[in-house]
């Protein structure tokens, strides 16, 4: 028998991460939910569930705190600014809006675009990945179900054929246990002669009889128990898995979340650009304030609920994949089987095919191989007898004192026996192939190691991370929602003649207070020149000054002093 080393399971980073969430003293052993009577223990379920709610509790607590912060900031009204839903205020005395306005709107634009892109990726890739995950589980479960069905059908066929072939076996034994001469139908009255051909035929016949006697109970015992084990236990488990898959596939529809995320991401991106550019389209921003943002807030809340559900599923999945002392799916199977119990064949099958990974022996497989070996011996012996009878029939009839053709019935029985036992050998070969460990263990590894404990956690972790991103960015967008409105111009432009006082100085209104622009003070430059008086003596200093009140005033004041 070929022996294989059990395939080692290497937990992915997603499985390790979610298995390490805080449990606050509660159990992480999922198999603890079953009691000694193979029934679900309600108290144990509650105890286990309390250890899986960390992510859900964290998300829901964050949402509640976020809502409370929004309510408190709203109470501060204009003092909280954009955090209370009020737009930015521009003061034209500064010429341009403050840089923080652009920074916040740029941040909101990037967040909205990221939400939009997340919706697209989630809609396209997330849906396909989730469907592949369900297909992987379904294919794995289908493979295990097919194996169980093959075992049941093959053992049924083997048992039924064995029982039907019992009559042929008895006929052969009856025909040849007295030697070839006992099979002669009509004696010619001649004495029986001793001959080497007869002795050789009788020797081959005795070998066949001994082999058939060893196979007397081949249609009962372990094969029947094996058939009953896979027929009752396995079908029940697989039916539960299939029902759970159908329900999960029906409920898990990423499109219901991805499509709204994409739509609202696009709308908020457009709104941010319009507010940034100052395009004050009142109907649009009214709809944004009273319809779009409230609906987006609801989506953020539902995203937190979905995030809680996905996180809890990942925690439970990690507990399944890191069970027992070995921290493997096999460890979970072993604990579960030890808890639920089962007959000796089922326990031996689980140890051989799952826990030990084809290392050791499985009694039912050994029995089938023993049966196959015995059947091959019988088949070889019957074929040898048939060929010997065909070639030596005339001589044997003379030796046994029979008439010509008196061994035809014996030859026909051997021909029929060869066909029957050849079919029996083929069925037994099929049974051995069905019970072959590499095939069964390979399907189990594909189902648990690859699909259940690698691909599915990876897909759900990706969904979790994208939803967490939308959740965080969505809370930030709602918190800074005032920046999605056009800035409010809280100062009057100086070009407006109605705001010029009696002195011609512009008056600005800012938060109900008046401000005047003080005119520029003219600047003067002076130069001093000396010139001789009428006596030729430089006695007079003549200063000159030039005043330039502004760039638009070209008046020049010159003064000469003597």
Describe the structure.
The protein has a two-stranded parallel ribbon. A hairpin with a 2-residue loop joins strand 3 (507-510) and strand 4. Helix 1 (13-19) packs across helix 9 (282-321), helix 4 packs antiparallel against helix 8 and helix 5 (166-176) crosses helix 13 (408-434). It is mainly alpha-helical. The longest helix has 66 residues, at 99-164. It contains 14 helices and six strands.
Number of strands: 6
Fraction in helix: 55-70%
Alpha carbon gyration radius:
47 Å
If strands are numbered along the chain, what order do they take across the biggest sheet?
1-2
Mean pLDDT: 75
Distance between the termini: 131 Å
Structural class: mainly alpha
How big a fraction of the residues is strand?
5-15%
- Using the alpha-carbon principal axes, give the shape: elongated
Uncertain residue segments? 1-5, 187-194, 492-519, 537-562
N-to-C series of helices and strands: HHHEHHHHHHHHHHHEEEEE
Q: What is the number of helices?
A: 14
Largest sheet: 2 strands, parallel
Can you describe this structure in just a few lines?
The protein is mostly helical. Helix content is 64%, strand content 6%. The protein has 14 helices and 6 strands.
Which key terms come to mind for this protein?
6% strand; 64% helix; disordered C terminus; single chain; disordered N terminus; mainly alpha; 14 helices
